[in-house]
Amino acid sequence: xxxxSKTPALTRALDILNFISxxxxxxxxxxxxxxxxxxxxxxxxxxxLCRQNYLIKSNDGSYSLWLKVVELSNxxxxxxxxxxxxxxxxxDLMLATGLMCHLGVLDQKAAxxxxxxxxxxxxxxxxxxxxRLALERSxxxxxxxxxxxxxxxxxxxxxxxxxxxxxxxxxSIEAYLQELDLIRKKGWSFDNSEDVEGVRCIAAxxxxxxxxxxxxxSIVGASIxxxxxxxxxxxxxxxxxxxxxxxKIGARINQY
Length: 256
Description:
InterPro entries: GAF-like_dom_sf, HTH_MetabolicPath_Reg, Tscrpt_reg_IclR_C, Tscrpt_reg_IclR_N, WH-like_DNA-bd_sf, WH_DNA-bd_sf. The protein has 256 residues and is of the alpha+beta class. It contains eight helices and eight strands.
């Protein structure tokens, strides 16, 4: 037996979306009879789903799925496809640098690795797909936030936790904003052992067909693997890889 929902209104809204998805356009009566939703609730739920563009009401009074569902579906497909698109490029980057490579995305208050390409190096850095990264202390996190709209940046940084994980950790909003500005000017970001002592990261943004940020890639290694002698070449390889992936998913050439 299913556990009783703690949020019945949300459950009913999801049930309605699933029912219409399975059966196509439906009348209020069809939905009510199939899902046993009280009249006192169903009209409010349908009205809100229409207001949020999850449903649209036709002239005959029936309800169909609408644009918000398509938008969310497209986002999922893009992220799923992006993993497949990025994998060969990141594999080439790993072979060229000898370093572990990642594809990461932004999710509200954190960054997450959605793809990892392990290196053959004897020096290993612990990482895994699904790993959560602090936006204020990781190269890929800083890169993902730097290229967001200004209002989102300002909203997000108010919730960041500036603590000293290492002696290089950024410790204030002012310093962090300066770092984001520098990242936008350079076109790439650098984690100089700011989250884990002795671990460095170079990250670069991936843009989509709207020339807005889609994701970011990074190379990660120990400080002896990413150093002053090879950093310029590693930056070139990483940004070139990000450029190729961006163009592959439709970014305009003049972005670069």
